[in-house]
Amino acid sequence: MEKESGRRGVARPAWEALLALPKAGDTLKFWKSDRWGRSAGHVLTTVNELRDRGITVVSLTENFDLGTKEGRFMFAVLAAAAEYELELRAERQAEGITAAKRREATGAMLPGKKKTGRPRAIGPAELATLRRLVDDGASVTEAARTLKIGRSTAYAALARR
To answer: Is 73 helix (H, G, I), strand (E, B) or coil?
Structure first.
């Protein structure tokens, strides 16, 4: 199981170790083609290198055979579609963030919202109560339980004096 992101420029040691393991005649089974990488070119290069080494590549969820030209074509189409979807999602996310910042700057935020971003877990009244509890001798953990907030949230709030 890989712990790192598959985005460009990030080392994926578990993935590299996996690709070095199979030998000619082995079969490498994978769950879905969109997990191979972030770029269609990189995905296709990796599959071609494995095939050149005599390794059979099989998808467990997508019904195509990479041993045939039709299967390789379908794999290439799916890899390109996954890359397109990733780029489209990133573009929409950036547009949404820009629009929210523009609404915040003009004062046209959505009803009930004053600014963009995640709301604070505790407001000024809760922070004052937290400080009073801690000053009165309660541990931060006890004070956090009393206010029904996380201990790490309480520590972070106290650090923001």
So the answer is: helix
